[in-house]
Amino acid sequence: ILNRCVVLRKKTMEENKIIVTVVTPSYNRAKQLPNLYKSLICQSTLDFIWLIVDDGSTDGTENVIRDFIEEEKISIEYYKKNNGGKHTALNLAIEKAQTELFFIVDSDDYLTVDAIEVILNDWKKYKELELCGISYLRGFSSKEVIGDEFPQDYMINNFAEIRVNQHIKGDKAEVWATKYLKLLRFPVFPNEFFLVESYLWLQISQMADMLFVNKIIYITEYLKGGLTESGRRLRILCPQGGMSFSLLAMDKKYRLVDRLKNAILYVTYSKFAHKSFVDVIRNDFKCLTLCAYPLGTIVYFFWKKRYLDDKKV
Q1: The Cα angle at residue 87 between residues 169 and 28, in degrees rounded to 5
Q2: Of 109, 101, 123, which is closest to residue 213 (Cα–Cα)?
């Protein structure tokens, strides 16, 4: 539910030809947001809109953003909604974004000084190819890459092929073509506050290829208490979301070993969601699910004991 909307100096697309929206979902990150803000106002080009979705923060985030707005250094759109999880904040951002490109930058991270300029230059060169977006590298610093580099620089390929089948590891900086995002939304399940973003990315990869660039434009700091650290327990507490993603990843376009792994996870999450055996196997991959069922059940009992501390879920 959208509670309030604050918009400052929203430039018209026709007048300014802004094509990038930097999207920041935020929940109780008032202390971290200034670092991201500083990196945005120091960009080599300010031709972008910063769209912030406040997912029900209670730490004074709204006042921090209001101070940014009053400085009038960059174009800012601010929306506040009831807390529902990052995926619900992204759903709202997808609805509101009006530019060609949609670039998610988390509230506790920041950009290199040339990030927007690099994106604009690359998009200008390649946009006629109708790509679904551009994937850059993230780093712990401007020189230390998180995970793997891509097999080739300025390579055009399928997102799922590169990230799943070729197992290119580590968080990346994906800039998405908004028109593809507008066709999709994250599903929302009652009392669940998490769903992996790849749920949408795998679906978009079926529509168009992506440009992969071996350049760090995004610096990540993994904070204590963040989504990355919360890890497995958070996924267990949001089992229907886990089921939804695992079902997508069981598709025959992926390697058999990965399909089987996700089938096991699908069964495991279904147990946490209290699904019956009949409900679990009622999908397009019945044989795979049946094969995975015994292992998925074992994983369920192991995770329940390890992560939930004997709490009933």
Answers
A1: 100
A2: 123
Instruction: Place 1 in a pLDDT band, splitting at 50, 70 and 90.
Output: very low
In angstroms, the CA 85 to CA 63 distance is: 21
Which tokens go with 92?
């709202």
CB atoms within 10 A of CB 257: 8
Q: What is d(CA 56, CA 79) in angstroms, rounded to the nearest whole number?
A: 10
In this predicted structure, the answer to whether residue 10 has a pLDDT above a threshold of 60 is: no
* Separation of alpha carbons 191 and 217, rounded Å: 35
Determine the number of helices (DSSP H) and then strands (DSSP E) in the chain. Answer: 13, 10
270-292 as b/e: b if 16+ CB within 10 A: bbbbebeeeebbeeebeebbeeb
| Helix locations, the chain, DSSP H | 13-16, 33-41, 61-71, 86-96, 115-126, 159-160, 178-181, 198-204, 227-236, 239-248, 256-272, 277-281, 286-307
pLDDT, residue 221, reads: 82
Q: If we measure between CA atoms, which residue out of 45, 97, 49 comes closest to residue 75?
A: 49
Record the pTM.
0.91
Q: How confident is the model over 182-230, as pLDDT tens digits?
A: 999 999 999 999 999 999 999 999 999 999 999 999 999 876 655 554 6
Euclidean distance between CA atoms 211 and 152, whole angstroms: 10
Neighbours of 152 (CB within 10 A): 11
